Amino acid sequence: MPTGKIKTLLKGFGFIQPDDGSKDVHFSRRALKNVQFDELIEGQQVTSYTITQGDKGPTASNIEVEKVAQQKVDISEIIEKGGEPLVTAAEILGRKLARNLKTAQIRKVYGAVKKIQMTEFNRNELIMLKPKLAYAAARKPEKAEGKRKIKKLQFVSGNFFEYMVSGYLPEFSKDKPITITLKGEKVYPINGEKVWVDAQENKQLRAALSPNGESENEDINIWQTPTRPRVTIGSQNAGSEIWHVQTVQFNTNCGLWFAAQFDSDETQQRIETLLRVLGDTGIGGERNAGYGTFDFAETTLEIPTSEVGGQFVTLSSICPQSPEQLAQLLTGDIAYTLNPLTGWVSSTGTASRRKQVSMFAEGSVLHTSGTHIGRLVDLRPDTWSHPVYRYGYAWQVGVTGASE
């Protein structure tokens, strides 16, 4: 019986390189006897096969290959090394199967490695930015410089968010350069003063994002919004017309986060499946140019709840269920921002502008009236038959009065 090696693997078929130096032999996935096609690796030894002559040349059948011994690695070793063994194995496998791997498969392997890399130590180092509280902007400081800094602010880190929901407001020094403190802790503005972090977080971010050792006076960016030129060709006169698109680019190991609660394991699995599909297709505009694709990893997060009858800050946009609920939300000491939401939606090859809706923006401080505040909003264009939903439920975090 002839022997050889797996030379090339393609989608559903491949070629064997005979040991006797003769012409490569074609085979299909159905010709394998003792392994599955997906288990094959280029260079794997073929112990026996049968050759039949066809119109397109020699074809192999009844193929038996030498099974590759799998190396077992203890899970504690993988965790201790931060997933390094899996990363190495994935790189080797990727090189061997480069022609046969699909994008979704690559993302699945990469996502599994990222989850293992996120050990308890790394999870404790996560810095999750939250929206600034609207009431902090409403109660503007007397100094003009302080007003400008509050106006620039978009996000605060976890510690400062907890201080602000406990009623503490930022304080600004009278001397220049102005320093900011919150509950006695110095605030470090970064990313063009759009983000406030504490001393430890500032040190951590600079070590991760500024490998060249930028000084404390140098700004560091979690994200940037560059504008890129584009050119379109007219359909009638073939003339070129330049236009610009603004993109959001995240720095290394930076990205978006969201919180979710699930009523069952089945729901969680469905959501994770949808996220994987969405990660492959992308979010936002310019998806056909490769923008918007992503991977995700999971961690646990404790978020305090709010009590009925008190004030809360929302971590999500809100669209009230009814005029009555709107009136309850606007009761008492509140501060909010209205965010007009517009954009495009595409389906089955067509794109249209979705209906516009204004919602209470993240960071708005409102009066809580129950556990279920907000609703889903159908923003489908008038000519569409299926709904296009926008999430408008509140994620409430309780807020106490300002400290003296």
Summary tags:
404 residues, alpha+beta, OB fold (Dihydrolipoamide Acetyltransferase, E2P), 6-stranded mixed beta sheet, 10 helices, 24 strands
What does this structure look like?
- The chain is of the alpha+beta class and 404 residues long.
- It has five domains: 4-65, Nucleic acid-binding proteins (OB fold (Dihydrolipoamide Acetyltransferase, E2P), Beta Barrel), CATH 2.40.50.140; 75-124; 130-211, no CATH class; 260-300, no CATH class; 311-399, no CATH class.
- Helices cover 24% and strands 25% of the residues.
- The protein has ten helices and 24 strands.
- The strands form eight sheets. It has a six-stranded mixed beta sheet with strand order 6-7-11-10-9-8. A five-stranded antiparallel beta sheet has the order 3-2-1-4-5, with no helix packed on it. Strands 21-16-24 form a three-stranded antiparallel beta sheet, with no helix packed on it.
- Strand 18 and strand 19 form a beta hairpin.
- Helix 2 runs antiparallel to helix 3 (103-117).
- The mean pLDDT is 79.
Q: Give the N-terminus to C-terminus distance in angstroms.
A: 90 Å
Helix content: 10-25%
Question: Approximately how much beta-strand content do the residues carry?
Answer: 25-35%
Rg calculated over all Cα atoms: 28 Å
Categorize the overall geometry: elongated
Average pLDDT level: 79
Low-confidence stretches: none
Major sheet attributes: 6 strands, mixed
Q: Give me the oligomer status.
A: single chain
Number of strands: 24
| Helical stretch tally | 10
Would you tell me the structural class of the helices and strands? alpha+beta
Strand order of the largest sheet: 6-7-11-10-9-8
| Count of domain modules | 5
